Amino acid sequence: MTTPALTTPYRAIFCDLRTDRVFDILPLRDVSLDDYIGKPGSLTGTVPVPDRAIAARARRIAEGRTSVYLERGGDLWWGGVIWTSTLESTDRGVLTLGIQAATFDSYANRRIIRTDLTYTGKEQLELARELWRHLQATAGGDIGVSYGTETSDVLRDVSWRDGDETVYYDALDQLAALDGGFEHHISVFRSPAGERVRQLRLGSPKITTGTTDLVLDMPGSILAYSFPRDATRGGTTARARGDSVNENQAEESRPLYSSEHVAQPLIDAGFPRVDLTADYSSITDIPSLESLAAAELATAQGAVVIPEITIRLDDLVPPALLGRTVRLRITDDWYVEGLDTRYRIIGAKVTPPQRGRPDTADLYLEEV
Question: Quick check: is 322 in a domain?
Fold first, then answer.
């Protein structure tokens, strides 16, 4: 159980990426961090360097080789790879080292499939784990990501070819985006023995966390909210385009493409025709493109709505927020009768307390 935010400092734990061996715990200020289901999150912060002793310790931070965890009250709230840093000195000689990191799933964005991989009738969540196993099996490629045992009822036939230079993360993303697909996320937490764990979490069709709703009220723990509705990101038709299968250089090469998928109920209800298209350069079979087009339309029909709320972090807010269901209760001049709706958390941006400002978190939601 955590203690209140105002009395619980965040600790930045610096480790070797491949071994997870701790080499230092350094102060980190001006911290901003976020995390999402289905895409890498980020962390930025500044290590103050007041003297030579701290400078010698900070020099051990090696971009691309060092991982960092942010800990609050004994719980791990964020973990990832430091990819860039910036050493700065002011006109008064004040030194700082700025770091920029991304969650552990970003490592798959830096790895490329360089062998032929073919799977027939493979359960899709096991296939996602297999991609990560293959990624970590090569010399120097194991970063200690472990796996769960989630399953689905969906079987896939997929292949990737050596020479296509397909990024592992793109392969995983395209697999997840198929109709009837799944969500993926690498979570960090402590095991019952107190060890740090990096685990690939999968959910079909959704990742869910916890069995009870997290109740958030305004007035109360909700400080602010925003409910944007964006029709420029939505549509009523969708088509997916893949790669060309033409190997004859004397002939024109055109990409394969799916049929046009139409949200007919919306058009019948009076919505205008708005077209969506998506390109998948490594897909070379029509059934996969049809599935991708159907999934694209299912998630972007009409106007896209991603509610955002800002909450005060306190002892009642758990570190494992992504995938958790919240019950949102708002009463104000817009919701005179009161809003009482359930949402799922798909992203979070945490701002630690600084200069008298309390811990806050921006939560990105989707309606359940």
Answer: yes
In order of 88, 167, 240, the CA distances from 237 in angstroms are 50, 28, 11
CATH code of the domain containing 179:
3.55.50
Residues 359 and 215 occupy one common structural domain: yes
How far is it, in rounded angstroms, from Cα 274 to Cα 262? 10
Q: Are 301 and 190 in contact (CB under 8 A)?
A: no
Which of helix, strand or coil describes residue 118? strand
Co-location of 90 and 116 in the same domain: no
- Helix residue ranges, H only, the chain: 52-58, 124-137, 168-177, 264-268, 286-299
> ∠ at Cα 353 (102, 228), nearest 5°?
65
Sheet holding 145-147, edge to edge: 145-147, 196-203, 183-190
Structure tokens at 105: 């799933």
- Distance separating alpha carbons of residues 296 and 288, to the nearest angstrom: 12
Indicate if 214 and 347 belong to the same structural domain: yes
CA dihedral 194, 197, 203, 208 (to 10 degrees): 40
Q: pLDDT digit string (tens) for 224-260?
A: 999 998 888 889 999 999 988 777 666 777 889 999 9
Cα 100 to Cα 32, 81, 97, 219, 305, distances in angstroms: 10, 9, 10, 35, 29
Domain count along the chain: 4
pTM (2 d.p.): 0.86
**Taking a C-beta distance cutoff of 8 angstroms, is the pair 276, 233 a contact?**
no
12 and 96 both lie in a single domain: yes
